[in-house]
Batch of 2 targets.
Target 1
Amino acid sequence: MNQTMAVQGTVTGVRDAVDALEAWSDRERLSDAARRRMLTALDEILSNVVRHAVRDETALIEMVLSRDGNLVQVEVVDNALPFNPLLVPPPDTTSPLESREPGGLGIALVRALTDEVRYERREDRNRLTMMWRV
Amino acid sequence: MQISQEQLNGIVVVAPRGRVDSTTAAALDAHLTELSRAAQPRIVVDFGEVDYISSAGLRVMLTLAKRVRDARGALVLCSLGDAVRQVFELAGFLPLFAIEGSRDGAVRAVAAR
């Protein structure tokens, strides 16, 4: 069953959204492996929105969970300034410990842990859609 | 996330349980930072009860590795489940850490340093 929820742009809001996705994935009887990929990717996207995009109390973040057959989809919509996380350059994953910087890892994980990810700016909203075949 | 801890012959074994993500990373970071202040800290982080780790958790581990190295201590990770191992691998983190299959193996590895 599809589900939509408003998410506060705070750590608590992110936790609530991750809890909701976990409960939804249990109801949909998704595998542990699929559930973990989805929760990890959602944490990356929402923490990114909270860190980079949310500037004031009028911020709106919405999460839409949906399923069509074996295709599950998590959409995150926010009304912050335009920001396409998919344009973040890939991280350094090869240099030694001394020079390793953790930037960009989150989006790289999202790309790797989803079957498809799309960004769209529409109606003054950022819309990030992650999809998995389960 | 909960954190349990035990001491074995001067080696501290830390076992987070549950999610290690943006909502819990600060608590884990505070815990591990405190431990890494010891002279030559000897730390095992047991991931056996970790459901998943996101980049926020990876940042905590990277910081810990640098602190332990700077303090000439020893750090070994163990019991990475498939989901955790996959994230370490995707991030290119596997070569940065000593990783053992079991807690016993990790404790032996730290003791041998």
Target 2
Amino acid sequence: VITSRYLTSTGATVLLTEHERSLVGRFFLYAVQRRSAELAVRVLPEDELLMLLYGTVSEHGDYLLRPVVVPTFRRFTTSDIDARFDSSPLQGIQETISLYAEALHDDPASAYRNAYRAVIEEAACLLP
Amino acid sequence: VTAAYRTSSGVKVQLTERETLVTQLFAAHATARHEVECVVRPVPAQRILILVYRALHGSYVGKDKYLLRVLLIDPSLSLYDSDVESLFAQAMLATPERAIKVYVNAVTNDPSPSMRAIYQAVVEELACQLPE
């Protein structure tokens, strides 16, 4: 059941199911605790994944991104969510794009290749 | 504590039974992905296990070229096979130089001092994985 619509930074319209909306909401609360703002949500239904992109501003005024890719079939505990954030180190916009572009090239068989592309597309829209 | 271990940076570590089990679980998945474990370093105070794998396949793998995948795992988590797979997939393959850059940036960028300490430990271990 589709319960909400979402517009990503690339202009794509995203439809979220109730479960996906609930997941986005839970991760959003943790992002706020980490002084990060939600920048984009992309649904990858064929891969059963959500790509969540968060941003924060560094002490030096640079924009930093933290992409998180979440399996939608998973029920997340509090510590699960923390672990997903921790394993995605904050990087600058250009560094994020380069990192994911190289990963796409180097690991073309990754089950997350569509999610990597989504990160690149959304991050590219945030470039100055 | 069930296993004594020395990391590539020379740090002496001891793994608990749980950490050993988690390491073995991830090692089995790494083998299935044609990847080999090259670092296990627990950061007990932060409940994090640093695992680094080296890819034996991929478009940038050769005699002198290789790719690394860094995983930061909370060993207290209940992990199913699908979780392990998704954690591998989220931790992208990168050249050693790129991986170090990512974590050096993270040491600078992360607002949490405890996470900075973890990322610093990752940098130490990755530095030992650079080609000679």
